[in-house]
Amino acid sequence: MPTFLAIVAIAFVTLAWLSIREQRRETSKRELRRRTRAFAQTSAACHYIQEINRTRAFPLAPTANLRVVDGEFSLLFEHCTQYEVINARVARLRARRSEPGARSRAPIRVRSGDGSSELAHPVGGGELFLTNQRLVFMSPARSTNIRLGDVVGIRGNAETLSIHMARRRRPYHFSVQNPALWALLAKMMSSQTPATPMLPDGMRLHAAPTGVPGEIHLEATHTRR
């Protein structure tokens, strides 16, 4: 009997060890995919800045249903989903109120600046615009108008663009194709709003990836003529 119990114990320990090893392997694979995706996004964002230097102007995006004011122009436009960090009870209530037969998106993990993550639930799909003055999300479920001058934090990781506001406890989260590019341009516009899409004479932009996945260092130099 003791021999049988010892064999069973060894079997359980072996299975537990194999399970833990497989979990660690899957975690490493996910992290590698995330870093690879973030590297590709930052490379594309840096190439975007190079094109601005070459053409001496910011590429303009369609305004579609967005009404712009005088001196405002659209820089980025994309169909995306807005996510919000809410508790499980509120998430279940929203799911019940959704239209019958409607296909809902699964929650995603959003990362904070300290490396922790939270579960964010979809608010709805719509159109996201970035202009030189604001970030606008338009959808049948909810519309969000964010003045860039009121933004206190902008973060782009491999999955989402996160916008932090001074008077809002929870940040806004948007799933876009290239969060690094959206974050880079949003930071540029929030620090100084250009009056036109043209790059000033003598100015040159320099963008380079940092050691943090998805983060880009940007600076501007001026050449006297």
Folded structure, characterized:
By secondary structure, this protein is of the alpha+beta class. The chain has a single domain (46-222), classed as PH-domain like. 34% of the residues lie in helices and 30% in strands. The chain has three helices and ten strands, in the order αβαβββββββαββ. It has helices spanning 2-55, 88-97, 179-191, and strands at residues 74-84, 108-111, 117-131, 134-138, 144-147, 151-156, 161-165, 172-175, 203-209, 216-222. The strands form two sheets. Strands 1, 2, 3, 4, 5, 6, 7 and 8 form an eight-stranded antiparallel beta sheet that branches. A hairpin with a 2-residue loop joins strand 3 and strand 4 (134-138). Helix 1 crosses helix 3. The protein is elongated, with a radius of gyration of 22 Å. The chain starts with a helix and ends with a strand.
Terminal CA distance reads: 92 Å
Q: How many structural domains does the protein architecture include?
A: 1
Question: Helical proportion?
Answer: 25-40%
Helix and strand content put the structural class at alpha+beta
Which H/E pattern describes the elements?
HEHEEEEEEEHEE
Q: How big is the Rg?
A: 22 Å
Strand element count: 10
Any guess at the CATH architecture? Roll
List the helices and strands and how they pair.
Blueprint: H1 2-55, E1 74-84, H2 88-97, E2 108-111, E3 117-131, E4 134-138, E5 144-147, E6 151-156, E7 161-165, E8 172-175, H3 179-191, E9 203-209, E10 216-222
Antiparallel strand pairs: 1-3, 1-8, 2-3, 3-4, 4-5, 6-7, 7-8, 9-10
Give keywords.
10 strands, elongated, alpha+beta, two-stranded antiparallel sheet, single chain, 34% helix, 3 helices
